[in-house]
Design a protein that fits this description.
heterotrimer, A alpha+beta (415), B alpha/beta (520), C alpha+beta (57), B: alpha/beta, 19% strand, elongated, C: 57 residues, alpha+beta, 2 strands
């Protein structure tokens, strides 16, 4: 077999593994209990590896928030001092089978979604999604939400979940996509479907009203709650496709607000990075482009498995982000088809005639066509201390794929 | 500065949608700030922060839409608020067509394709042509600046796969009546022609049609096919096919000088050909090959037409030499020149025409300079500086790098005509006009003003500029041949349907210059 | 070549045009089945990448 055939076979294997993914929510537990390698005085973050000094304002703010939340420091100044002195270890989520939205910060006492891929037995973890701390806000208000999650909402949901024996997520994802969600910025349907199931489960678990009611209010009022689950699903689906010799399929895209990094199935644990780009976006009242930070978060794991912007054609409610025309959305779907290996048999977009989603980004095709994966994402402020300021579209930098292709050529001895 | 707002009760809108509306409203001229939001307490505070308040805002609730504008004048505020409904409606856009960008995409759409027509930049052309050949397609390679090594590689690959590579630098082919590249509309018939000279093929096929006859196939080989590096790979394949083609009764070959080895091989092959063969080897020093062999040699394209026609109909065509009427006309023209006028300037769109004209003039004893010369010693030191008798190939790289070919766009020829008209010693302007697919829609029209201006200038100096033109084309071509001819005549040009005859006319004009030295 | 059908000369032309649209349009006008490719170089014209892609893709 020549190298092209080897690559084609390897890519087929990688994509089939992704397609076979069967994600199930099996637990909601404190990160320190379930995430492999997460130790005391360690905080996991979104994106490729990065030292404290190079972190962007929003991610620094989020890290400070976690330090205060864990009680390792009493003031932001104390927290900064500890971080400068390397008393707290910072590592990428992706190195621990984990993903996190925006700054993506996860510390030992923070409860995370635990998703198991029943087809391969692997697990993936993701924290809950909220609108303040993960954007760099470390105020009392922001931290209070984290505490409520830790003390009330997560434990209650956990009891209900364990009582029901786990929750199959693939049906929710399939239905939600057909109801107009794209599973990155638009989760209204999936969150609704999730809330419905958890509501029943909480009642059936016979849990006290004092915890059930606030938890019900939380899940039924949070139209992005499913993003955290979708991200964990994406990671659980992508990980079995990692480590296949000769495969050029991308198995992770992640940003920390400073760097954008990708990982490739046949290229081990190497990151291929480039400066994180600006998001072309729309802003919430009071904010504009001058306030924005660069692209951030592990949420591009959704595009990595063919959701998010890859299915934006099927999400009419979010079309405003792409300029507002269905034709343009269709154009994006056609573009992504040119740089991917296969089409998913199950996840389909009714708005585009039920065509299947494109899955398996191939670094060769990206370099050949110069078409880079499109991602739709939220926007954080460039400084710490602010909540979400907007949302928009961004492209993964071509440079990441070029570097990866060169490395692939060297590793597999192509001349 | 002015501000205003509107409250729409019980109109829930998605926040992302509202951000888009906000953007559309803020793009109006004179608008300083916009706010499009639902009436939550937080949002009402935001509005207060930018100076927007009022009773309707106070009483607005979370399901009410508030739209506020701050602008230069109250009129702008009112106008923009009036556009709110428009902004709330979805924009309808036209369908974006699916555009193909690669050969692979083309093959995916047309898996049964048998021909790739390639006119992309030379540095990439060989690569794409190779892929096309590997996919089983024949190639029409219009691109130039392909290396001779790449050309050899392509043609050897084609040979192995029984495919044809027409090119590089191939401008014309007519396959089964279908014109590819620059081609004239020509009827089908029994005459087959192979050419390493694009405009030469156009001239030959047009003249055959104009003589009432037809073409089976015209196969372009590219200008370097008959060099000794390539040894005529495409020529020999084309020959084989025309021999096997039942429609083809006579085979004609047209080119500029061949490599010595290739010339010998080709002559031998044509002599041994199963069908009558005619060779028009422009510029090739040809020993008299007029023994009774299968191969007849034509010194000009017109002669090739004559010889081919004779095989088909047996009856001769009108002679190539000038008629007595034309000779008289030449004398009349010369009589109008001032004493200093003595030189010929040719400004050509067709490379083969520039070449054939040089040959005819040389054979008549005139020394001619050119940017695409017959012999190295005749090369102009700078293409922009004409010297004595000069013929210019305006399709040469020097003039076409980054600019459209003169067959498509006449701008550079216009400039050159005007420049030449400033030279007091210019007596004759020789021009070619080429019709057919992909040529300019009005080749004559593009140059008309320049021709009139040039003649006017010389007239003002007390002389007369003789403009001699040839038109290559048929009455079936998209450009109106008769109208093009008419326009030229009305501008005072002397029009021929052949480059060779137009050049013979120039020879006649130059033969006896008024007083002074013999034209040499 | 003893068989009756001469390659290309006896076949209907099915063309893929890489380059300016005019050549495609003139074929279309003659009733030829053709497809237009607005050709752009692979990898944005980067020769090193093109070479690498030749090996791998």
């Amino acid at each position: 077999m020549d190298i092209k055939q080897k690559i084609e076979k390897a890519n087929e294997k990688a994509v089939n593994r992704m397609i076979q993914g069967e994600p199930v929510l099996v637990d909601i537990a404190p990160a320190g209990e379930v995430i492999p390698g997460l130790e005391d005085k360690m905080i996991l973050h979104a994106g490729p590896p990065i030292e404290w000094e190079r972190m962007c304002g929003a991610q620094k703010g989020a890290i400070i928030g976690m330090v205060l939340y864990e009680g390792w420091a009493k003031t932001p100044e104390e927290a900064r001092a500890m971080l400068k002195k390397r008393e707290i270890h910072l590592q990428p989520n992706h190195h621990h089978q984990t993903v996190g939205p925006m700054a993506g910060t996860i510390s030992p006492s923070a409860p995370v979604w635990v998703v198991e891929n029943k087809s391969f037995g692997n697990r993936a973890f993701c924290r809950q999604v909220e609108g303040r701390q993960q954007f760099g806000d470390y105020s009392e208000e922001a931290l209070q939400s984290l505490r409520l999650w830790r003390d009330v909402w997560a434990p209650t949901l956990r009891k209900a979940l364990l009582n029901m024996g786990g929750l199959d997520l693939k049906p929710i994802i399939t239905h939600a996509m057909q109801m107009g969600d794209e599973l990155h910025n638009r989760h209204s349907a999936s969150s609704s479907l999730f809330a419905n199931q958890m509501a029943v489960a909480m009642i059936e678990a016979d849990l006290p009203k004092e915890t059930v009611i606030p938890t019900l209010k939380y899940v039924t009022n949070h139209n992005l709650i499913f993003l955290g689950l979708a991200m964990a699903c994406g990671k659980a689906i992508a990980d079995p496709a990692h480590g296949i010799e000769h495969s050029t399929v991308v198995i992770a895209m992640a940003r920390n607000g400073t760097d954008f990094g990708i990982r490739v199935s046949g290229l081990g644990n190497d990151w291929f990075t480039a400066p994180s780009p600006s998001v072309d976006g729309l802003y919430l009242p009071g904010y504009s482009a001058v306030d924005a930070g660069f692209d951030m978060g592990d949420s591009a794991i959704t595009e990595t498995v063919g959701w998010g912007a890859f299915v934006i054609g099927g999400a009419p409610g979010i079309l405003s982000l792409v300029g507002g025309t269905p034709d343009e959305a269709l154009a994006y779907s056609r573009e992504m088809k040119k740089i991917t290996v296969a089409v998913h048999p199950t996840y389909r977009m009714p708005a585009l005639g039920f065509v299947g989603t494109s899955i398996g980004i191939d670094i060769r095709k990206v370099v050949q066509t110069s078409i880079t994966p499109i991602i739709d994402t939220a926007i954080a402020h460039k400084d710490p201390g602010h909540p979400i300021i907007g949302a928009g579209l961004v492209r993964a930098p071509l440079e990441c794929f070029r570097q990866a292709l060169i490395a692939f050529g060297r590793k597999y001895n192509a001349r | 500065m002015a501000s205003g707002y509107v409250v729409r009760k019980q109109q829930y809108y998605d926040s992302i949608f509202l951000m888009g509306v906000n953007k559309r409203l803020s793009e109006n001229r004179g608008v300083l700030q916009t706010a499009v939001l639902m009436g939550s307490e937080k949002n009402k505070q935001l509005l207060a922060d930018i100076g927007i308040h009022g009773p309707q805002i106070d009483s607005a609730g979370p399901n009410d839409l508030i739209v506020a504008i701050i602008a230069d004048t109250p009129q702008i505020v009112e106008a923009v608020l009036g556009k709110l409904d428009e902004a709330l409606d979805r924009i309808q856009a036209g369908s974006i067509p699916s555009v193909l960008h690669t050969l692979e995409e083309g093959l995916a759409q047309k898996p049964n394709a048998n021909l790739a027509v390639i006119s992309i930049p030379g540095e990439y052309a060989a690569h794409e042509a190779r892929k096309a050949l590997e996919a089983g397609l024949n190639v029409f390679l219009f691109s130039s600046n392909v290396s001779i090594e790449d050309e050899l590689d392509l043609k050897q690959c084609a040979l192995q796969n029984n495919l044809l590579v027409m090119g590089p630098d191939c401008g014309t082919s007519l396959l089964g009546g279908i014109g590819i590249g620059f081609a004239n509309i020509v009827r089908r018939g029994p005459i087959g022609v192979i050419g390493a000279a694009g405009t030469g093929l156009q001239e030959f096929t047009s003249q055959i049609h104009n003589a009432g006859l037809g073409i089976s196939h015209a196969i372009g080989t590219g200008s370097h096919d008959v060099s000794d590096e390539i040894e005529g790979i495409t020529t020999f394949t084309a020959l084989e096919r025309l021999e096997a083609d039942s429609q083809t009764k006579v085979i004609v070959f047209i080119s500029k000088p061949l490599g010595a080895k290739t010339f010998t091989k080709l002559v031998e092959r044509l002599q041994g050909c199963r069908k009558p063969a005619i060779g028009c080897f422009l510029g090739q020093p040809v020993e008299p090959l007029d023994r009774n062999t299968n191969l007849q040699c034509a010194r000009t394209i017109d002669e090739a037409v004559q010889l081919a026609a004779k095989h088909v109909t047996g009856s001769p065509l009108p002679p190539i030499q000038l008629t007595s009427e034309e000779l008289e006309w030449a004398a009349r023209e010369k009589a109008g020149w001032s004493p200093e006028q003595k030189y010929l300037r040719g400004v050509f769109a067709g490379g083969t025409f520039c070449y054939q004209s040089q040959q005819i003039l040389r054979d008549a004893g005139f020394a001619v300079h050119s940017n695409a010369p017959f012999a190295p010693q005749n090369r102009l030191s700078h293409p922009d500086q004409s010297l004595e008798h000069t013929l210019l190939d305006m399709g040469d790289d020097y003039y076409t790098l980054g600019k459209p070919h003169p067959m498509i766009n006449g701008t550079l020829r216009v400039q050159r005509i005007l420049t030449e008209s400033l030279d007091h010693q210019v007596a004759i302007l020789l021009l070619d006009f080429i019709l057919g697919y992909n040529a300019s829609t009005d080749p004559v029209g593009e140059l008309l003003d320049a021709i009139l201006e040039a003649r006017q200038r010389v007239r003002k100096r007390g002389g007369s500029l003789t403009v001699v033109a040839s038109i290559c084309g048929t009455e079936d071509d998209p450009q109106d041949l008769n109208l093009q001819t008419q326009l030229l005549k009305e501008a005072g040009a002397i029009v021929f349907r052949s480059n060779a005859r137009a050049t013979l006319f120039c020879c006649e004009l130059l033969k006896h210059p008024l007083g002074g030295a013999h034209g040499k | 070549m003893e068989n009756n059908i001469i390659p290309l000369l006896d076949e209907a032309i099915l063309a893929i045009n890489l380059g300016p649209k005019q050549f495609y349009e003139s074929l279309e006008k003659q009733g030829v089945e053709a497809v237009q490719v607005d050709w752009t170089p692979s990898a944005g014209g980067d020769k090193d990448m093109i070479k690498l892609l030749d090996e791998l893709l």
